[in-house]
């Protein structure tokens, strides 16, 4: 177990370092000099040169990279070209909102998928099970932003029960906070839940055919008792793989859903940064997103080892 | 002790096992032999109440006067693992891969009301008796033979009055096979032993049932049936398992087990002695040594 963990940590560190290089290189290769963009078309070359020197973008790329990555290791993301405020602080404020969105969406997906998928598997021979499969198929075909717009139309415009957008911090008013996040959570969670339902169903169907479930019944367990005690943990192994992929998808989906619901999260910050050519900010946000995905993969790897003793 | 009367197993209207009757006395070890597809496993699974979905059993089976057939699973599951246990053919997949073997042994006891601490202690003892002294091991850390012995420990944990073994040694090496059989003989109460290995039956059982086409075609004391088979199928089965001098053709039963058996005697389309009489059903007749054949071997 220790050596497995050490290996996973090494992989995490190596891939984070690689991600840093890729993100930096990608931003460096983008056309458009931030100083030129900031000062407009009428700026004198001297003014542009002065701004470059101030931001440090006149230095060789390698120096800039080492400076940036060194700062990141210490939690310093640099200062925004546009607002002159520290980027790390801005990301910190937004990260919490986005994580709340993603985790809430995932929780809804699990609440939907685990019971629905298990039910569909146990009843795979009768119409109700087939109905759940068909419904999840429809859910898969709907992208999160469309689900968001539909939810807004039904619950905010027609029923006027929930706000169509905006965000209230938890510290300000927990009830309004919950209301402002409910539709975004649903639009992320229901779609992912539909996808996950199918994976849960096939994983449960798979373990239902396993010999050890028959052994459990031979010990004196009923059908459901055997599935509960011996099936679910084994079924969780493939589901965790999909869960990891979905968390990454949700992180990206959140960027779009934040736009639909006007929520000040990382996605909102990222899109603003792109619109204002605030390259250092964009670089920082992208790096945070990439590291988040890598961390999710790390957690998935650890979860495997916890669930499946054969991997330890 | 175990009494099976007219057990019939059907799937989609097709009779897979037909009118099988037999009994097992306390302490008796009975072999159930026949080729794959003859209905041996279905017979065993129906006694355990573990038939696959879409397959159903009729007839009657009682174990110590408690009915095993035609009662809801709720009642039968209280008997499974306590009064009647089963060891399956495939040791590699029969144990839960994510659970320590000690826990899998003690589970069968706590499930039937043994306090947790006591169950854990007895699990250690049982694993020691079958020679697997690694309660904290996961199944993948054990060999096939060790896993099968864990299965045996699970099956015997509650001291059942009947142990059903479905080809428990088929997947094992010959040397490991012998250890396993010795353990079964030493530890088990009454046994219903399913196999297609006649040598294994000869070393374990005192009485034997021969199945073909979902029917018992011959039954009797092992020595009697093996030295003086009356049914033509048993005769062929024994001939096919004899060691023959090098260079001679191996004796075989012509043809293969069909997917649908003929009416009347199920063996008549593979039998050299078949006549028009075989189109009607031969009854299993005879005291002690019984057989269902119109043209028995003398």
3D architecture notes:
- The complex is a heterodimer of chains A (312) and B (298).
- Chain A is mainly alpha-helical.
- Chain A has two domains: 72 residues, no CATH class; 217 residues, MetI-like (MetI-like fold, Orthogonal Bundle), CATH 1.10.3720.10.
- Chain A is 79% helix and 0% strand.
- In chain A, helix 5 runs antiparallel to helix 6.
- Chain A is globular.
- In chain B, strand 4 and strand 5 form a beta hairpin.
- At the A-B interface, helix 9 and helix 10 of A face helix 6 of B.
Short description:
With 312 residues, chain A is mainly α.
Count helical runs of chain A: 12
Tell me the span between the first and last alpha carbons of chain B: 33 Å
Low-pLDDT segments, ≥5 res of chain B: none
Cα-atom radius of gyration of chain B: 20 Å
SSE order of chain A, one letter for each helix or strand: HHHHHHHHHHHH
CATH superfamily of chain B: P-loop containing nucleotide triphosphate hydrolases
Order of strands, widest sheet of chain B: 6-7-8-3-9-10-11
Range of strand content of chain A: under 5%
User: What is the count of structural domains of chain A?
Assistant: 2
CATH class wording of chain B: Alpha Beta
Structure summary, number of beta strands of chain A: 0
CATH architecture of the largest domain in chain A: Orthogonal Bundle
Biggest interface, which chains? A-B, 22 and 31 residues
Tell me which CATH architecture of chain B applies here. Answer: 3-Layer(aba) Sandwich
Determine the oligomeric state from the structure: heterodimer
Summary keywords:
heterodimer, A: 312 residues, mainly alpha, MetI-like fold, 2 domains, 12 helices, B: 298 residues, alpha/beta, Rossmann fold, 7-stranded mixed beta sheet, 4-stranded antiparallel beta sheet, 11 strands, globular, P-loop_NTPase (chain B), ATP hydrolysis activity (chain B), nucleotide-binding (chain B), transport (chain B), ABC_Ni/Peptide_Import (chain B)
């Amino acid at each position: 177990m220790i050596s497995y963990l050490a290996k996973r940590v090494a992989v995490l560190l190596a891939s984070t370092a690689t991600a840093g290089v890729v993100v930096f290189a990608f931003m460096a290769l983008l056309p458009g000099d931030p100083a030129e963009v900031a000062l407009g078309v009428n700026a004198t070359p001297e003014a542009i040169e002065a701004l470059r020197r101030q931001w440090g973008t006149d230095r060789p790329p390698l120096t800039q990279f080492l400076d940036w990555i060194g700062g990141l290791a210490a939690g310093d993301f640099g200062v925004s070209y546009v607002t002159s405020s520290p980027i790390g602080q801005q990301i910190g404020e937004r990260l919490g909102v986005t994580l709340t969105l993603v985790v809430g969406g995932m929780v809804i997906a699990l609440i939907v998928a685990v019971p629905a998928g298990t039910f569909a598997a146990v009843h795979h021979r009768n119409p109700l099970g087939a109905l759940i499969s068909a419904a999840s198929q429809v859910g898969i075909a709907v992208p999160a932003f469309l689900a968001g717009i539909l939810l807004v139309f039904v619950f905010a415009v027609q029923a006027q029960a929930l706000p169509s957008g905006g965000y209230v911090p938890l510290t300000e008013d927990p009830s309004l906070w919950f209301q402002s996040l409910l539709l975004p959570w649903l639009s992320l969670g229901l779609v992912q839940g539909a996808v996950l339902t199918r994976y849960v169903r096939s994983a449960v169907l798979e373990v239902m055919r396993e010999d050890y479930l028959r052994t459990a019944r031979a010990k004196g367990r009923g059908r459901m008792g055997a599935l509960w005690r011996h099936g679910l943990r084994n079924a969780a192994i493939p589901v965790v793989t999909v869960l990891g992929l979905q968390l990454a998808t949700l992180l990206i989906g959140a960027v779009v859903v934040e736009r639909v619901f006007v929520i000040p999260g990382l996605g909102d910050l990222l899109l603003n940064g792109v619109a204002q050519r605030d390259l250092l900010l964009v670089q920082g946000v992208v790096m945070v997103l990439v590291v988040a995905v890598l961390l999710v993969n790390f957690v998935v790897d650890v979860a495997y080892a916890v669930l499946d003793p054969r991997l330890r | 002790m175990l009494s099976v009367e007219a057990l019939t197993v059907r799937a989609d209207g097709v009779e897979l096992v037909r009118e099988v009757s037999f009994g097992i006395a306390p302490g008796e070890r009975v072999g159930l032999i026949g080729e794959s597809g003859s209905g041996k496993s279905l017979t065993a699974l129906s006694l355990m109440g573990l038939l696959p979905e879409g397959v159903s059993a009729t007839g009657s089976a009682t174990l110590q006067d408690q009915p095993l057939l035609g009662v809801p699973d709720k009642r039968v599951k209280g008997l499974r693992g306590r009064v009647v246990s089963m060891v399956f053919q495939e040791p590699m997949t029969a144990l839960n891969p994510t659970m320590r073997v000690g826990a899998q042994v003690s589970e069968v006891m706590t499930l039937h009301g043994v306090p947790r601490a006591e169950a854990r202690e007895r699990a250690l003892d049982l694993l020691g008796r079958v020679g697997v002294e690694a309660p904290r091991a996961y199944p993948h850390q054990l060999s096939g033979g060790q896993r099968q012995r864990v299965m045996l420990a699970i099956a015997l944990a509650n001291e059942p009055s009947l142990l059903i073994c479905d080809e428990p040694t088929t997947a094992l090496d010959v040397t490991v096979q012998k250890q396993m059989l010795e353990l079964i003989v030493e530890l088990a109460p009454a046994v219903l032993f399913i196999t297609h290995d006649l040598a294994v039956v000869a070393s374990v059982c005192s009485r034997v049932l021969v199945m073909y086409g979902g029917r018992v075609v011959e039954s009797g004391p092992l020595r009697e049936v093996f030295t003086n088979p009356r049914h033509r199928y048993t005769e062929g089965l024994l001939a096919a398992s004899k060691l023959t001098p090098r260079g001679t053709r191996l004796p075989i039963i012509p043809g293969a087990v069909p997917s649908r058996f003929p009416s009347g005697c199920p063996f008549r389309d593979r039998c050299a002695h078949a006549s028009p009489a075989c189109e009607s059903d031969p009854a299993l007749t005879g005291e002690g040594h019984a057989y269902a054949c119109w043209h028995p071997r003398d």
